C-alpha cells in the first residue's frame, strides 16, 4: 500500500494494543539449540502477530551451521523472535526467542539483559546442545526451567534421568511440551512463573 501524499500513518491493529488493565510486564527469553522449536513456541503462544527474523538456509552455511534436521528445516532465526502473552489481566509477558545457530550466539547477551527468566527448550535427540545454553544463563544469573519438546522420533526418558544427564539442580523444573500447541506452550510459561515466584519467596526468607 502506498502512503505517499497522505498525512495518516497506519497504527497498530486493535488486537495488538496493550490491554489497559496491564500493570506489570516481564521479559522472558526462549532459548535452545538449532531447530528445537523456539520460533514455533513463540508463534503458537503469542496473542499478537509474532515478529520473526527468519532467513532461508543456503549452501553457504554448510560446514558452518548446525545441519541437524536440514532435510526438513529451510529457514533459521538470525536475530530474534518476539511475541506477547497475557498471564492475567494485569501481567503481560514479552517473549524473546534467541537464534539457535552458534554463529549468532553473540546476540544472546543483549537478549538476556533484563530478562526475568528463561525457558530452555530441549530436544532429547541432541541433549548435548543444551549444556552451553544453560551455562550461559547461569553465568548471567537468569533463572530457567527446562521444557522437553516432544518430537515424534525423539527418545523419551524419565525426568530424573534427564535431570542427571543435564546436570540440573533438584529444584529446577523439567516439563514436557508440544510447542505447536498453544495450551502446552502456555503451561510451560506458567511453570516458569510459578518457579520464579517460589524463588522470590525463598529469597525473601533468607
List the keywords.
8 strands, 206 residues, single chain, globular, alpha/beta
**Helix- and strand-based class?**
alpha/beta
Outline the biggest β-sheet: 6 strands, mixed
Shape descriptor reads globular
* Number of separate strands: 8
Provide structural commentary.
- The protein contains 5 helices and 8 strands.
- It is of the alpha/beta class and 206 residues long.
- The strands form 2 sheets. The chain has a 6-stranded mixed β-sheet, sandwiched between helices.
- Helix 4 (159-166) links the parallel strand 7 (144-149) and strand 8.
- Helix 1 (38-45) packs across helix 5 (182-205).
- It is globular.
Q: In summary, what is this structure?
A:
The chain is of the alpha/beta class and 206 residues long. It contains five helices and eight strands; from the N terminus they run E-H-E-E-E-E-H-E-H-E-H-E-H.
Detail the topology: elements first, then pairings.
Blueprint: E1 24-31, H1 38-45, E2 54-56, E3 75-77, E4 81-86, E5 91-97, H2 108-112, E6 117-122, H3 129-140, E7 144-149, H4 159-166, E8 174-177, H5 182-205
Parallel strand pairs: 1-5, 1-6, 6-7, 7-8
Antiparallel strand pairs: 2-3, 4-5
Helix pairs in contact: 1-5
Amino acid at each position: 500500500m502506498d502512503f505517499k501524499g497522505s498525512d495518516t500513518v497506519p497504527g497498530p491493529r486493535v488486537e495488538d494494543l496493550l490491554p489497559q488493565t496491564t500493570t506489570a510486564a516481564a521479559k522472558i527469553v526462549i532459548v535452545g539449540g538449532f531447530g528445537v522449536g523456539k520460533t514455533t513456541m513463540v508463534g503458537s503462544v503469542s496473542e499478537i502477530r509474532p515478529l520473526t527474523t527468519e532467513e532461508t538456509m543456503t549452501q553457504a552455511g554448510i560446514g558452518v551451521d548446525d545441519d541437524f534436521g536440514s532435510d526438513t528445516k529451510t529457514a533459521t532465526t538470525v536475530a530474534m523472535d518476539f511475541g506477547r502473552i497475557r498471564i492475567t489481566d494485569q501481567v503481560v509477558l514479552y517473549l524473546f526467542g534467541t537464534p539457535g545457530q552458534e554463529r549468532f550466539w553473540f546476540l544472546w547477551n543483549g537478549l538476556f539483559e533484563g530478562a526475568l527468566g528463561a525457558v530452555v527448550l530441549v530436544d532429547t535427540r541432541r541433549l548435548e546442545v543444551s549444556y552451553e545454553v544453560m551455562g550461559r544463563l547461569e553465568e548471567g544469573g537468569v533463572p530457567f526451567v527446562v521444557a522437553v519438546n516432544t518430537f515424534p522420533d525423539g527418545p523419551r526418558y524419565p525426568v530424573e534421568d534427564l535431570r542427571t544427564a543435564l546436570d540440573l539442580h533438584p529444584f529446577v523444573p523439567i516439563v514436557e511440551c508440544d510447542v505447536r500447541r498453544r495450551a502446552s506452550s502456555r503451561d510451560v510459561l506458567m511453570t516458569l512463573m510459578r518457579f520464579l515466584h517460589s524463588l522470590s519467596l525463598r529469597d525473601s526468607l533468607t
